[in-house]
Specification:
single chain; 294 residues; alpha/beta; Alpha-Beta Plaits; 2 domains; 7-stranded mixed sheet; 4-stranded antiparallel sheet; 14 strands; 32% strand
């Protein structure tokens, strides 16, 4: 299969803002290549049949416009290159290595021979597939930090917008009783299925092609959503309806300037904000559905 590599040259200062722009335009997994102390290259891949010329021009314009927000975007160039499956796989293998996500969790590329350092270290094996995520992005780390904070074991969980399936896998490793993982993209679900097969210790996990929580009526203890704010906002009332009393929602994918809007939407839906986690320019939020009488 043929792929198109999209490469952005920018500054370390503008890296998080550029990563957000890429995510908003369909990028999942991102390779980060530091070229010097001030500059960085961000690389992602799209199927070759997708016409990216217009997107590349639009991204370059938006990256250069970051100066209006007080950020120096550096070179601010976007380039495209065609690659085949072999080159794409080689690129991932060159830049994607075992990464400790938290005190107890390490994400490991499927092709790496990696041994846990001790009995407490839990391993999540991933193949990035069609760039549906490597599990190492700050938004994933924030979600996992929040999960380790609130999970005690035995929870029923829904992972909305599962992508690579990493959060669903982590939920089971942290002791979840059951996990339903949904995504609107059938190819994302196929990617997640591949990753679940690499993590037999986390099975069973139910996968479902679904738009947010549309048509899902089950009540659960915890809902995870590491997705863009434009999708988080309509999810809020759905999440509230699908949570047990006292249940919690963990949200991520929130860039700094969008935090206030997301918090307001949480409050409007009836949630009580419990905690906020920050990593770089990204935020993760934990909110609870109040129990009656509280």
């Amino acid at each position: 299969m043929e792929w198109t590599q999209l490469l952005v040259k920018t500054s370390m200062e503008a890296k998080e803002a550029v990563a957000n722009l890429l995510m908003e335009n369909g990028a999942g997994g991102l390779q980060e290549i530091e070229t010097d102390e001030q500059a960085v290259e961000l690389v992602t891949y799209f199927p070759a049949e997708q016409n990216l010329q217009e997107l590349a021009l639009e991204l370059e314009s938006k990256i250069k416009a970051l100066t209006t927000f007080g950020l120096n975007p550096g070179q601010a160039t976007v380039s495209l290159a065609q690659v085949d499956d072999a080159s794409w796989q080689t690129a991932w293998e060159k830049y994607y290595h075992p990464t400790r996500l938290s005190r107890y969790l390490t994400v490991v590329p499927a092709w790496e021979d990696y041994q846990a350092g001790d009995d407490l270290e839990k391993l999540v094996y991933l193949n990035p597939g069609k760039a549906f995520g490597t599990g190492t992005h700050p938004t994933t780390r924030l979600t996992i930090t929040a999960m380790e904070t609130v999970m005690r074991g035995g929870e029923t969980v829904i992972d909305v917008g599962t992508g690579s399936g990493v959060l669903a896998i982590v939920a089971k490793l942290l002791g979840a009783k059951s996990v339903l993982a949904t995504d609107i993209d059938e190819e994302a679900i196929a990617s997640a299925k591949t990753n679940l097969e690499l993590n037999s210790q986390a099975l069973p996990i139910e996968l479902k092609v679904n738009n947010l929580l549309d048509g899902i009526e089950q009540q659960v203890d915890l809902i995870l959503a590491n997705i863009l704010p434009e999708f988080l906002l309509p999810l809020m009332p759905q999440a509230y309806a699908n949570l047990n009393e006292g249940g919690k929602v963990i949200l991520s994918g929130i860039i700094s300037e969008q935090k206030a809007k997301v918090v307001q939407a949480l409050t409007t839906a009836g949630f009580e904000l419990e905690a906020s986690f920050k990593l770089g320019d990204w935020y993760g939020l934990v909110a609870q559905k109040p129990r009656k009488g509280e």
